[in-house]
Specification:
The complex is a heterodimer of chains A (209) and B (282).
Chain A lengths: L1 H14 L1 H16 L4 H25 L1 H7 L4 H33 L5 H29 L1 H24 L2 H6 L4 H28 L4
Chain B lengths: L1 E12 L2 E11 L3 E6 L5 H8 L7 E6 L2 E2 L4 H4 L3 E4 L11 H11 L5 H10 L13 H12 L6 E5 L7 H14 L6 E6 L2 H7 L2 E6 L2 E7 H7 E6 L1 H4 L7 E7 L2 E7 L8 E4 L2 H14 L1
Helix pairs in contact in B: 3-4
The chains are: A mainly alpha (209), B alpha/beta (282).
Chain lengths: 209, 282
């Protein structure tokens, strides 16, 4: 398993440089922006996409076949991707937390509760999308999974815009729905765990050609 | 001990089926799996490694069923596939570090030695390598974790003759240890003829033949005669017939050839071509 994680680390360093630039731009925009949630949430969405991006490159290079010749189980191959996803979402969450803390402190509006709720909301979104997309990718391959992911991101973008339009985001940040956010985050974590188990079962049965 | 035992292995796809394949590869030997494109060589390799699920039959690798904790058995197996399969962004140095975590018997010094011997640049990404260089790296990996069994799927195709010869020598040296074995598929029959102890012919998912190479060469010869003369020979002794402008050429068991008939020695490629043509006509 360590070998698979090390391989993913090398691949992320090489293939996700462009993501790093996009994430940097979005974090800066969210820092100077007017509280638009989209710019704050989007880096974590991208981080959630990292395992799917890696699987896409692996399919192109036939690594998914080569990995079957190495002394790994299919469960380990799947788990490596979920762990890589958790790591990338975790790192992005940390960067977002730092950027948001600096912004809130500068604006003299820092509240632990606000920051916590925002981060839980972002974490939920960072987990939900790969939790839905990864089983599809492990069952049907990366192309169908990627199409679904693009559709979901478009829907998320539209949803975020709608939230902002009706000023629901402010309501969220005001902490009135803190319990809802905690429940959503717990639900996202459970969904991620179930998705992990489902992907293992699907990938064990998949015939690789 | 047998390195590989395949019994009644079946696998069906739309338009293709591997039909009750039986193969045994004893330790200390190299077996060449010969077949035209689409004969079932890669399917067999994938079934051996449980990459695709068999419909029927059993595969035993180094004494253990391939569905029983295969990841443990794979510690003793080196595999080189046609397309190698290493991620394009990785360089050989990084690949070595990954493999050190994958194989409990990984030998970094041996790996470094192969990289040096085969002139593989340590820090260049895999995607920038030529096909020959990619294959060499795949072989270096397969030989650097004290494997007992090598599975090589078209590992020499597309390589220039000099590199192919170097690589074939490595495989021959590998089987000097009697606990080692190699199963090597290729459609370059001359490569297999050079180094294999056993030859297996696959044609449209069926095993046409599996025998010791030297015995095959001892047992069969090419007969050059007329169609009428050929009728004297028992049909069961004839493996294949080719009509030429000068008469017929047939691969025939030496024991059934009447004295005085013109014969020439047979090579494995000729036997394969004759047998495949014969099988295609049936």
């Amino acid at each position: 398993m360590k070998g698979l994680l090390l391989k993913d680390f090398y691949s992320v360093c090489k293939y996700c440089r462009f993501f790093a630039i996009v994430v940097g731009v979005f974090l800066i925009v969210s820092y100077f922006g007017d509280g638009n949630l989209f710019f704050t949430i989007y880096p974590c969405l991208i981080a959630g996409m990292v395992p799917i991006t890696l699987i896409s490159y692996e399919d192109r290079d036939k690594w998914h076949i080569f990995a079957q010749t190495l002394p790994f189980t299919r469960a380990q191959i799947v788990s490596a991707k979920y762990i890589t996803g958790l790591c990338s979402v975790g790192i992005m969450l940390l960067l977002t937390a730092i950027a948001q803390t600096i912004q809130m402190v500068n604006a003299q509006s820092f509240l632990w509760a606000d920051l916590g709720q925002l981060l839980l909301l972002i974490l939920s979104i960072g987990l939900i999308f790969p939790a839905i997309a990864l089983p599809i990718v492990f069952q049907f391959g990366v192309e169908k999974g990627r199409i679904l992911f693009i559709v979901m991101i478009a829907m998320a973008g539209g949803g975020t815009a709608a939230l902002i339009n009706v000023e629901l985001a402010d309501t969220f940040l005001a902490g009135k729905t803190a319990l809802v956010i905690v429940l959503v985050c717990a639900g996202a974590a459970v969904l991620y765990a179930l998705s992990w188990l489902l992907s293992i079962q699907l990938y064990k049965r998949r015939q690789l050609r | 001990m047998n390195a590989i035992e395949i019994k009644n292995l079946c696998k069906s796809y739309p338009g293709f089926s591997l039909d009750h394949l039986n193969l045994t590869l004893p330790s200390g030997c190299i077996m060449g799996l010969i077949g035209e494109n689409g004969a079932g060589k890669s399917t067999t390799m994938k079934l051996i490694l449980d990459i695709i699920r068999q419909d029927q039959g059993t595969v035993t690798l180094l004494g253990r069923d391939n569905r029983d904790r295969l990841q443990l058995t794979k510690q003793d197996i080196g595999v080189v596939l046609d397309e190698v399969g290493i991620c394009g962004c990785l360089n050989p140095k990084q690949v070595g570090k990954i493999m050190a975590h994958a194989y409990s018997n990984w030998d970094s010094q041996t790996y470094a030695g192969y990289l040096k011997t085969m002139a593989i640049p340590e820090n260049k990404p895999f995607q920038s390598f030529s096909r020959g260089m990619k294959m060499k790296l795949g072989i270096a990996i397969a030989l650097s974790h004290r494997a007992k069994l090598l599975l090589l799927d078209e590992a020499t195709s597309g390589l220039d003759p000099v590199i192919r010869d170097e690589i074939l020598t490595m495989f021959s040296e590998f089987t000097r240890d009697e606990t080692h074995a190699v199963l090597m598929s290729s459609h370059i029959v001359s490569d297999l003829e050079k180094i294999c102890d056993y030859i297996a012919f696959l044609h449209r998912g069926k095993l046409l033949l599996c025998q010791e190479k030297d015995r095959l060469k001892e047992e069969y010869a090419i007969v050059h005669c007329t169609t009428e003369d050929l009728q004297v020979i028992s049909p069961s002794a004839i493996q294949g017939v080719k009509k030429t402008a000068y008469g017929v050429e047939a691969i025939v068991a030496r024991s059934a050839i009447p004295s005085g008939m013109a014969i020439s020695p047979m090579d494995i490629e000729q036997l394969f071509i004759f047998m495949v043509k014969e099988a295609s006509e049936i």
